[in-house]
Write a structure and sequence with these properties.
Shape: globular
CATH superfamily: Gcn5-related N-acetyltransferase (GNAT)
Number of helices: 7
Bound molecules: coenzyme A
Helix content: 40-55%
Number of domains: 1
Order of helices and strands: HEHHHEEEHEHEEH
Strand order of the largest sheet: 1-2-3-4-5-7-6
Number of strands: 7
Oligomer: single chain
CATH architecture: 3-Layer(aba) Sandwich
Length: 241
């Protein structure tokens, strides 16, 4: 776990040292230990709806089944995304350099006033980005956010065959109850502290900064390629490219 001073240092240097995403390093091999890096996670607003939809639609039928608990068709996913309530719930995401969403987590708050201190966690990681602890980090981030929001109990509904998800929940200290093909995991959350609030603030700041850097880099490369195109047209050098 990173300490507050590491996070502060990362904020001061725009997070360059910690925000390396091992995008090109492929999936971890079993037993392989990788140097931990901070994974920039940001909360997603309504203007990210389109990218959330693209991320979910790209999941295979089996992953859709694991994520939603049923064989979700495109129309189900579109309806789910259209119904996301960004004011009530919290949606977290991890972007790559091309600003594609590699992972999305949904922390859904109870709509029932009687269960206001409960929230449900759901997550998906793109197949090409698995095994980099994105799922685990999103779980930790969601648990910290929920705790800071006064939630006492976070639960996860998963199919019993979903070893990866149940592994994440168990490692975080959740109690898993199996009921045939389905399982429920319950995680009792600690009370918020000044440290948990500060850590979340800094992590969100890093996630936002990382996103802005990626956005600017993309805009810069687009501009460069336009300049090159104009230059090639002016010099009549089009045939070479
Ligand atoms: C479940 C899911 C989110 C995990 O994402 P991930 O980023 O690959 O998970 P992590 O890298 O954080 O790995 C979590 C742990 O599970 C283990 N794990 C990963 N895949 C596993 C598998 N197929 N079987 C058993 N364990 C597995 C990892 O080794 C890791 O344990 P470790 O910390 O001891 O090394 C991802 O597989 C996914 O999107 N699945 C489809 C949708 C889904 O099932 N969502 C969950 C239901 S809400």
């Amino acid at each position: 776990m990173l300490e507050a001073k590491d996070l502060l240092k990362a904020t001061l240097d725009n997070g360059r040292a910690l925000m390396r995403i091992p995008e090109d390093e492929g999936q971890s091999q079993p037993g392989e230990v990788r140097t931990p890096v901070l994974i920039p996670i940001r909360s997603l607003g309504v203007n990210h709806r389109g990218r959330i939809e693209r991320h979910l639609l790209a999941l295979s039928p089996q992953d859709r089944y694991l994520r939603f608990g049923y064989a979700a068709q495109d129309t189900h996913i579109e309806r789910y995304v259209a119904g996301l309530d960004f004011d009530r719930d919290e949606i977290f995401g991890i972007y790559n350099r091309k600003l594609q969403l590699l992972a999305v987590a949904h922390l859904a708050y109870s709509v029932d006033a009687e269960f206001q201190s409960c929230a449900e966690f759901g997550v998906s990681v793109s197949a090409s980005a698995r095994g980099r602890h994105y799922g685990s980090r999103l779980f930790e981030r969601a648990a910290m956010h929920a705790s800071n929001d006064g939630v006492h109990l976070m639960f996860i509904h998963a199919l019993s065959e979903n070893s990866a998800m149940l592994n994440i929940a168990r490692k975080a200290g959740a109690t898993v109850e199996r009921d045939g093909m389905e399982s429920e995991a319950f995680l009792y959350l600690p009370k918020a502290t000044l440290d948990s609030r500060m850590t979340e603030l800094i992590e969100e700041q890093l996630g936002q900064t990382d996103y802005r850097i990626k956005q600017q880099a993309r805009q810069f490369w687009r501009l460069l390629s336009q300049i090159q195109k104009v230059r090639r047209t002016l010099t009549g050098d089009d045939s070479k490219h």
